[in-house]
Write a structure and sequence with these properties.
There is one protein chain. The chain is mostly helical. β1 and β2 form a beta hairpin. α3 (64-90) packs antiparallel against α4 (107-125), α6 (144-163) packs antiparallel against α9 and α7 (170-191) packs antiparallel against α8 (203-222). The protein has one domain. It contains 11 helices and 5 strands, in the order αααααααααβββββαα. The longest helix has 34 residues, at 233-266. It comes from Eriocheir sinensis (Chinese mitten crab). It catalyses: a very-long-chain acyl-CoA + malonyl-CoA + H(+) = a very-long-chain 3-oxoacyl-CoA + CO2 + CoA. Residues 310-331 are annotated as: Disordered.
Length: 354
């Protein structure tokens, strides 16, 4: 038993001391993996257990102003990281086919190491994405995909900065920061309110964009399996494996969110309108609050103070033929039927949320 413990300790020291990138010694959180690990575990517990329990009997917070500021800050931060990672190598002298790590004190190498370190910290700021969901009581958005994606990234990037603060795998950061620029612009416009929703019709394509990034990343990483390059192959499998995992997780989300929902919406010639007070079937509207051949107790299609015992050919019968002047009946405008039908059919998901 003692021998096993000594072997584990020696292996740990060899890995985290002898194999490290000495340039990052003393940088915040770089000396040991445990602070990062515990922060990742704490994040998962907070957003899946503590947060939802705290918000269970509380109303959701109104965070629109804070969300606009946060997403704008993330756009700026991601833009700066994209520029730094690019100018440190990928826009200048890096090879897309094979790029070993430059462990020297060359200014461009040190610049890439610092950019990688700041990219590591950006994975912590992204925890706020989930925390805002919790405070909004949008627990349905805190999916397995979301928690895995955010929860494991700081730990993954930590290893990259600790051992290879530069070189081939920083291509991941270059592509990812560019995607985050576009993503946080979308989130910022969405947080600014309904009048800006017309500028974010490309939500579906944002998911496509995110999937494309993972194809680029694992294709770039796995090419080292077929060429000689003085770059640790363990990181080829580490980065490439992450990209493959995220690609399939995002693919599953895409199928559920867009392909299956589209099939349900248009299937069998019937348009289903979830959460609406009725459904549109073959051109006829059946109302939950007043059916065409049913009875409504005091309410028929949004009208009160009168019992509607039927609705046929545009006439309401309430103790006789009801006209616009009937007692207790609020007259219906001529456009209300067609307008309400168009609103139900054309209503977007984002509008219904508002």
């Amino acid at each position: 038993m003692k021998h096993i413990v000594e072997t584990v300790v020696d292996s740990y020291n060899d890995l985290f001391i002898n194999q490290r990138d000495p340039r990052v010694d003393g940088w915040l959180f770089m000396d040991s993996p445990w602070p990062t690990f515990f922060m990742c575990v704490s994040y998962v517990i907070l957003v899946k257990v503590i947060g939802p329990r705290y918000m269970k009997d509380r109303p959701p917070f109104d965070l629109r102003g804070l969300l606009v500021f946060y997403n704008a800050a993330q756009v700026i931060f991601s833009t700066w990281l994209f520029y730094e990672i690019g100018m440190s190598g990928w826009f200048t002298h890096y090879s897309f086919r094979c790029q070993p790590v430059d462990y020297s004190d060359n200014p461009s190498a040190i610049r890439m190491a610092h950019a990688s370190w700041w990219y590591y910290f950006s994975k912590f700021t992204e925890f706020l994405d989930t925390i805002f969901f919790v405070l909004h009581k949008k627990n349905e958005h805190i999916s397995l995909l979301h928690v895995i994606h955010h929860g494991c990234m700081p730990m993954s990037v930590w290893f990259g900065v600790k051992f290879t603060a530069g070189g081939h795998s920083t291509f991941f950061g270059l592509v990812n920061t560019f995607v985050h620029i576009v993503m946080y612009v979308y989130y910022m416009l969405s947080a600014m309110g309904p009048k800006y929703r017309r500028f974010i019709w490309w939500k579906k394509y944002l998911t496509n964009f995110q999937m494309i990034q993972f194809v680029l990343i694992f294709s770039h990483a796995f090419q080292l399996a077929f060429t000689e390059c003085h770059y640790p192959r363990a990181f080829m499998w580490w980065i490439g494996g992450h990209a493959v995992m995220f690609f399939f997780l995002f693919s599953e989300f895409y199928i559920k969110a867009y392909l299956r929902s589209t099939k349900k919406f248009y299937g069998n010639g019937t348009t289903h309108l979830p959460k609406a007070n009725g459904s549109l079937t073959n051109g006829h509207i059946k109302h939950a609050n007043g059916h065409a051949n049913g009875k409504a107790n005091g309410v028929a299609n949004g009208y009160s103070n009168g019992h509607a015992n039927g609705h046929a050919n545009g006439h309401l019968r309430s103790n006789g033929a009801a006209t616009k002047d009937s007692n207790g009946h609020i007259p219906q405008t001529e456009e209300s039927f067609s307008v309400r039908a168009r609103q139900l059919v054309c209503m977007s998901v984002d509008t219904s949320v508002e």
